[in-house]
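User: Please fill in residues for this 359-position structure.
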């Protein structure tokens, strides 16, 4: 779900269990061409196992569309921006990429002045992306989706950094945070407003993977916070996560997840409904949930436990496919005489996908 793993992750996840993180989405993701799309066609994007996935809002029709992290679906629902990671001997190269949902065509923004770019977020009109880049220091920037017209908004000081950009509805400013404070920054780099997290959210603090997202009406921020509270969950390390809203005009905070509900990485469906990640007590997987701001109507939009339940018939079918692919791979090894011939083939990826589905 992200470049940064939550510090409170489940102990099982620290060893072997995969987690699923909700995507870095704009509220418009659920309203892809809202005037044209039906509710059944509304989609959201999310990250799973370093892959980019999309699904309908009701959790159906989930499919993998690319390898990468930090996905963000465009306002018209036609494409998804994400971070493509290229491993290297020294440090990974991270580039912004955009995949078209209609045909899977992917373009990479190779001309950015940095090999370390992440956290793309679409502007409400879909004509620009906000992003974070590192050129000696971390910088908040914007760029056109074709990679042109790159512009630095503001540079962090020293070892500081900005996180989780979110566009204002008038597209004249961006919200972001630096762990200590939440800022509203104009596109010419002026700080318009600042909220100290510990002062506005009692017992709250933020980490590098904390998210802030502006509501569709532009009145509230949805904030993912680490709480300085005790909890009795034996399967949870670190502070409990919680979701808060912060009214911009009044600076009034409101906790929307109770202490018994560990929620993080929230995003807006509409002004009264959010998607978020939560991992119920005893579960080994985090799942995507939907809930209204009053805490009611909570339901699982995409449940990992449901995904893990594979019928015996389906399991046998997948195992047979796995055996068939392994035989083809062995034949390739005999023909070419080198493991590299099979490793370079996309059969390896299909084998890995099957293994993940089965186990």
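Assistant: Residues filled in for all 359 positions:
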């Amino acid at each position: 779900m992200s470049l940064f793993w939550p510090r409170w992750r489940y102990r099982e996840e620290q060893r072997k269990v995969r987690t699923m993180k909700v995507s870095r989405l704009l509220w418009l993701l659920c309203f892809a061409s809202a005037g044209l799309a039906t509710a059944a066609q509304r989609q959201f994007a999310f990250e799973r196992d370093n892959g980019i996935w999309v699904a309908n809002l009701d959790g159906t029709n989930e499919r993998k569309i690319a390898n990468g992290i930090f996905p963000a679906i465009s306002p018209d629902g036609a494409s998804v921006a994400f971070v493509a990671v290229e491993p290297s001997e020294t440090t990974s190269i991270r580039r912004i990429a955009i995949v078209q949902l209609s045909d899977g065509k992917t373009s990479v923004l190779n001309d950015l002045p940095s090999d370390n770019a992440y956290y793309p977020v679409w502007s409400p009109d879909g004509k620009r992306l906000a992003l974070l880049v590192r050129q000696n220091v971390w910088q908040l920037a914007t760029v056109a989706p074709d990679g042109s017209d790159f512009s630095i908004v503001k540079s962090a000081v020293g070892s500081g950094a900005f996180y989780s950009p979110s566009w204002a509805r008038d597209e004249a400013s961006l919200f972001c945070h630096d762990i200590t404070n939440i800022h509203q920054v104009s596109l010419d780099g002026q700080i318009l407003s600042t909220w100290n997290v510990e002062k506005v959210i009692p017992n709250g603090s933020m980490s590098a993977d904390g998210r802030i997202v502006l509501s569709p009406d532009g009145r509230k921020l949805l904030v993912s916070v680490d709480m300085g509270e005790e909890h009795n969950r034996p399967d949870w390390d670190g502070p409990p996560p919680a979701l808060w809203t912060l009214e911009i005009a009044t600076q009034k905070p409101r906790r929307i997840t109770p202490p018994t509900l560990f929620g993080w990485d929230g995003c807006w469906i509409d002004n009264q409904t959010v998607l978020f990640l939560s991992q119920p007590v005893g579960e080994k997987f985090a799942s995507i949930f939907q809930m209204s701001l009053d805490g009611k109507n909570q339901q699982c939009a995409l449940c990992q436990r449901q995904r893990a339940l594979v019928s015996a018939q389906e399991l046998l079918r997948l195992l047979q496919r796995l055996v068939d692919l392994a035989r083809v791979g062995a034949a390739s090894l005999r023909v070419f005489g080198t493991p590299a011939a099979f490793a370079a083939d996309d059969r390896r990826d299909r084998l890995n996908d099957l293994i993940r589905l089965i186990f």
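For context: Residues 312-358 form one domain.
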